[in-house]
Design a protein that fits this description.
The chain is of the alpha/beta class. It contains eleven helices and 16 strands. Strand 15 and strand 16 form a beta hairpin. Helix 4 (84-93) packs parallel to helix 5, helix 5 (108-119) runs antiparallel to helix 11 (319-338) and helix 9 (186-196) crosses helix 11. It starts with 5 loop residues before the first strand and ends in a 5-residue tail after the last strand.
């Protein structure tokens, strides 16, 4: 008898949804993609070509899919951010495991509702997909830090920098994304919490930014380049940089500085080990997109989520941390817009500096 497979339904067939679909279809041996949904006709047409021939049942309505598609055990949510939480809660209430793309929501309160719903069904595996936690290099760096190789980690410096897209995609996307810190730096925020400890308490955040190439972003209170500083209680600090205008390609790098050394991840980005020798010098190519850099991490994420569901194991990412990341990202975005430093007491409550 063949071993059981996790029957998975997918919500959303946009940029990330397509990738998740193919991962669960072809690259997750213990899972079976049985259904997918999207309200977008163009996305469904893509699915008719790439998914339906393999037995995947297509739906235009998410609620219909999770209500009527027989045998579904888990849902992967890769729809627009505004419905992540709503769809996750609906799946949890139907007794389905959930892997939801980051962020849970652009609202802290709405994000918390997902956590509250999951607490009522503790047997379910509910995970927010922070892809870098599944990257081999970041895992290696974390294990070295955890083993004491660099002493006490004290300074965290990280960036997520997208290649310039002159099509205007990021301008249109900013209407839904809640800003560059919530969308882009959310990965770096999650990494800071991972390396410093999930129970790390934020003391203050401050941010500043510019529109160097996309002035239209100002209409949605966003920027194409921004820096943020997060100060933690206990003497730790994180410095974040996010950008939408890299010329060469995707530049996502991290530095963890400890009292006895430091670790870096991807400080010299490269697609592979090929160097190009030409008259102007020696160069190497780098990934053009975020997915180009973290493709294998997404595949690992799919396989580990599947294993946790089938084997009743722990999911690799705690759901509560996703709420914490949104809270920090929203505070950074607020500081970016109003130019003010935001303070928190040791319980996480916002306060005026004078009261600390």
């Amino acid at each position: 008898m063949a071993p059981p497979k996790l029957k998975v339904a997918l919500a959303g067939l946009g940029r990330m949804g397509k990738r998740h679909a193919l991962h669960f279809l072809d690259r997750t041996p213990r899972a079976e993609l049985v259904a997918a949904s999207s309200p977008d006709e163009a996305e469904l047409q893509w699915a008719k070509l790439h998914l339906e021939p393999y037995g995947v049942v297509l739906h235009a309505d998410y609620e219909e899919m999770i209500r009527e598609q027989g045998g579904v055990q888990a849902v992967v949510i890769a729809s627009v951010t505004s419905v992540h939480a709503e769809q996750a809660i609906a799946a949890i209430e139907r007794g389905l495991h959930v892997l939801v793309e980051k962020p849970l929501s652009t609202s802290v309160d709405v994000s918390q509702r997902v956590v509250d719903a999951a607490k009522k069904k503790p047997h379910l595996k509910v995970m927010c997909g922070f892809s870098r936690r599944f990257d081999a290099s970041y895992r290696d760096a974390w294990e070295k830090m955890d083993a004491g190789l660099i002493g006490r980690p004290s300074v965290f410096r990280s960036q997520t920098c997208d290649k310039l897209d002159p099509s205007g995609f990021f301008v249109a996307y900013s209407k839904l994304s809640a800003g560059i810190f919530v969308d882009c730096s959310i990965h770096d925020i999650d990494l800071a919490l991972w390396f410093f400890g999930q129970d790390s308490r934020v003391k203050s955040v401050v941010a500043s930014g510019i529109t160097a190439v996309e002035p239209a972003l100002l209409k949605t209170n966003d920027r194409d380049n921004a820096v943020g500083i997060i100060e933690f209680y206990g003497g730790r600090i994180a410095y974040l940089y996010c950008s939408r205008m890299m010329a060469a390609g995707q530049e996502d790098t991290t530095e963890i500085i400890g009292t006895e050394g430091k670790l870096t991840v991807n400080m010299q980005p490269q697609s592979n080990l090929v160097n190009i020798y030409e008259a102007s010098g020696i160069r190497r190519e780098i990934p053009a997109t975020y997915y180009g850099r973290f493709e294998q991490a997404f595949v690992t994420e799919a396989n580990e989520f599947t294993a946790a569901c089938l084997d009743d194991g722990k999911v690799p990412v705690k759901l509560a941390g996703a709420v914490q990341a949104v809270k920090i990202g929203c505070a950074l975005q607020e500081s970016l817009v109003n130019g003010e430093k935001i303070w928190f007491d040791e319980t996480g409550k916002r306060v005026e500096k004078a009261s600390l």
